[in-house]
Structure formats: C-alpha cells, structure tokens
Amino acid sequence: MLQEENTINSEKWIDNYADYLYNYAIPRVNDSDLAKDLVQETFFAGLKSAKNFQGKSTERTWLVSILKRKIIDYYRKINSNKGKAEVRMNFYDDGENEGNWIEERVPQAWDNQSEKSIETEELRDQLERCIDNLPEKYALVFRLKTIQEFETEEICKELDITASNLWVIIHRARTQLRKCMEDNWFNN
Predict the structure, then answer these.
(1) 114 and 76, same structural domain?
(2) What is the per-residue pLDDT for 176?
(3) How many C-alpha atoms does 37 have within 13 Å on its Cβ side?
(4) Is the separation of the CB atoms in 50 and 33 below 8 Å?
(5) Among residues 71, 93, 115, which one ends one of the domains?
(6) How far is Cα 178 from Cα 181, in angstroms, rounded to an integer?
(7) pTM of the prediction?
(8) What is the mean pLDDT of residues 91-113?
(9) Owning domain of residue 57
(10) Distance (Å, rounded) from C-alpha 20 to C-alpha 37?
(11) 146 or 91, which is more confident?
C-alpha cells in the first residue's frame, strides 16, 4: 500500500522494518554485526532525508533502497585503496558465517537431502576458493550481480563501468569459474 501523503512514521521503523532490513542485508554482507550497523545507518539516513520522501513507494521500499545504497557504499569502500587500509573484514574465509552467502542460494531440494550435505559443503567451499582466485574486480562484479542480485545500472554507476564492460567481466568471471570448477571439482 502506497503512502497517501508524503509523510513517514519513523517511530515505528524499528518494529516494522528492522527484521526485514536485517534479513535483506545479512546474505549480502555475510556479517551479522555489519548487517546490524547497515540497518542502523539506513534508519539514520532515512531520518536525515525524510523530507525527500515523496510517498511514491512504501516506507519499506524506500528504506530498502537506502539500505542497498549503504551496501554498495560499503563494498566500494573496502575495494578502494583507501578503504582497504581502513576496513578489515573476514571475507568469507572463516568464522561462524563461513560461506553462508552460498547456502542462501542453494536450491531448496539440496537443503532437504541430508546425504548431500557433505558434498554441498565441499562444492560450496570449492566454489568459494574459485571466486577468491578471480581478479579482484571480476570477483566484486560477479558477487554483486550474480550472488547479491544488484541491478546492472546500479553496479555500473557505482563502479563507473559501462553495461557492456559489466557483461564482459561477468562472462570472463564465469569462464574462469567454470575452468576452476572443472579442474578442481568435477575432474577429481
């Protein structure tokens, strides 16, 4: 239901949207504390820009769009030279959330078959290693587009690349991933 006026009800944001936004952020950043921080930053940014809310969408949709921007900004920061010096993050190598971003994408049938759990974990780990071996820009674009499902236009704008360049990078990343998986998974 769209807002009838250009007003928002920020007093109810935590009750109404915190869980939804957190669940949106967690598979995209693979870090519970970071996801919580991004949700808080989203609420803060929403309060600061409340006067810009035009009521053309629901509050939730508007907040999700702010959260998407926060996630993109986070990845831009950690992938810039300055950001690499400032941000240190366990990037799927270890910890309690290791590889959860892949588990979120595994087809439901695989999750329900306990006999496949070891094979699925090994496949996930190998795919993770293959993605980590991609050139940095390829891995970033691949994760944003294929895993995190960001829109092409959003990625191009944030990374200052053309759509054609994005698809070349995706194609090359997939080609390298296929070769890596063939060499290290399917032929073993």
Answers:
(1) no
(2) 92
(3) 8
(4) no
(5) 93
(6) 5
(7) 0.46
(8) 42
(9) 1-93
(10) 14
(11) 146
